[in-house]
Amino acid sequence: MKYIEKLHYITHDIPHLSHVQQVLLACEAGAKWIQYRCLSKNDEALLKDIKAIAEICDDWGTTLIVTDHVHLNGKADIQGFHIEDMDADFIALRKLVGHDITLGGSANTVENLIRLARDGADYVGYGPFADTETKPNNYAHLGIEGYQHVVSALKAQAISIPLLAVGGIKTYDVEALMQTGIYGIAISGALNFAGDFIEAYQDFYNLVKEGAVN
Prior knowledge:
Layout: E1 7-10, H1 19-29, E2 33-36, H2 43-60, E3 63-67, E4 80-83, H3 90-97, E5 102-107, H4 110-118, E6 123-126, H5 143-156, E7 163-166, H6 171-179, E8 184-187, H7 189-192, H8 197-211
Parallel strand pairs: 1-2, 1-8, 2-3, 3-4, 4-5, 5-6, 6-7, 7-8
Helix pairs in contact: 1-2, 1-8, 6-8
């Protein structure tokens, strides 16, 4: 099983910080897992960003995951991809990128999560936990009970996969979330719009580390 960090930071298109600036701040705060999420640029602009971010991540020993854009595999120092399409064919994707590349996926139902686990995903981002402006959608909020349910469902079927909560998570949610037995969490807006980005990251990191039960 590949190593998966328990706290994932996801970049986004925001007016006051470029993706590169976001990654610099996250790495300075101690981040070891960056998910570059940019769906607004062409391939040339994406690669310019990714190559700059890859250099930063290399300097800090941080894993770089790219949201979607699997066609860019091999064109920059990318360690993995996170696929947001919940209907994506992970068996075909694995054949495409090979076994050394990390493949994560998004899910919002137990059935989809189980399919991803069985089809070769290395981890799953499961949500949304609560309301989020970062990635608006119409899916029902899972809340704490939603994660309790999915953890129980995975155990009942003897399925083991790193499961990360995502979507509108605040620091005061982390303790109860980690106690459900999930593997970790993914955050974005809670840092990007924090008064002190670095302090906020470190608060999340400490809470996740203290709350981990697996």
